[in-house]
Design brief:
The complex is a heterodimer of chains A (88) and B (254). Chain A has 88 residues and is mainly alpha-helical. Chain A contains 4 helices and no strands. In chain A, helix 1 crosses helix 3 and helix 3 runs parallel beside helix 4. Chain A is globular. Chain B contains 7 helices and 9 strands. Classes of the chains: A mainly alpha (88), B alpha+beta (254). At the A-B interface, helix 2 and helix 3 of A face helix 5 of B.
Chain lengths: 88, 254
Amino acid sequence: MGRAEVRSMVIAVLAAKKRCDPRELEAELRAAGPECPCDSQWLVKAGVGAARKLGLRLRPRAADAWAFKSVEALTTHLHRLLEQRDAA
Amino acid sequence: MARTQSTRPRWSAAGTTELNAAADPKYYLCEMVINSSKLPTLNPGDVHVWQIPLAGDPTPHIAVLSPAELTRLERHRGVRRDRFAISHGATRQVLGGYLGCPPRDVPLACEYGQPPAVPTLQLSLSHADQLAVLAIAPAPVGIDVESNAHADDEDLEHLADATLAPSELRAFAATAPEQRPAMWLRSWVRKEAAMKARGHGLGDQALCELDVSGPRLRELELVDLHVGPDHVAALASMQPIARVQIEEWVDGSS
């Protein structure tokens, strides 16, 4: 699965958690910054949900905090985990 | 620790004014407090919690927002835009009561990614669906609220695995399945409140390393709040809590 697909999944799961339209949400996040910054508590929930769909286990550690600051960072984190799993 | 809960109209509960607020809820909080000889006071150990229903016309609230808040407002769409306006407008009204100034003049810092702050009070703001909660205290405080509608999450088991400390996870596993959503949600709001009170983020301590099952977490005191049947909320304070006073904010801006 490519990074763009992971990103779409993150947006979809985040929108479902926030119970809003994914396109509307993405427009809001883009308006906040190019990295699509978002509250970390929502990104933890979305990250766990997206990880489940990807067959990954996500247990955020302090060292992973960077991944829960924006949609782009979370996408990068999940995509790396996916690549690491597939490479193993 | 004493806890009081009031649903009476704002400052009339504290007896600070002779205005007929109970008879006529359509009044301006800022006017009432400015005209009052006694501003609301916070004693050591007090925490005031304001429940703010996020419904109604946002227009009057938009008029009192700062340029920074307006910039943030414009990023939101639809109902979230309205809720942002009301929560911040109401926060300004409430804080104006404590500071003795009109809502528009409240020096509320509101940078994206940072908790709202004023120079002379400690505060914490959280919202979920149609409810915002604002905690005001003399010492650092954190508050979090979640909607019960979010409790029954299809990712619940994974969320528990990702966020609960080992002892919490064992308790979660030992809990009846139908009670697990509420248990996880209670733990989640306590963790969020604790992190807010400490001014911490995920980079300071992982959620799964934070055991909030007890009444204290080192220097923090943790309290579960009752804010109605649809929400779960928790409060954390860096100082011992002597009294939590819960007030329901009534929109008097329109």
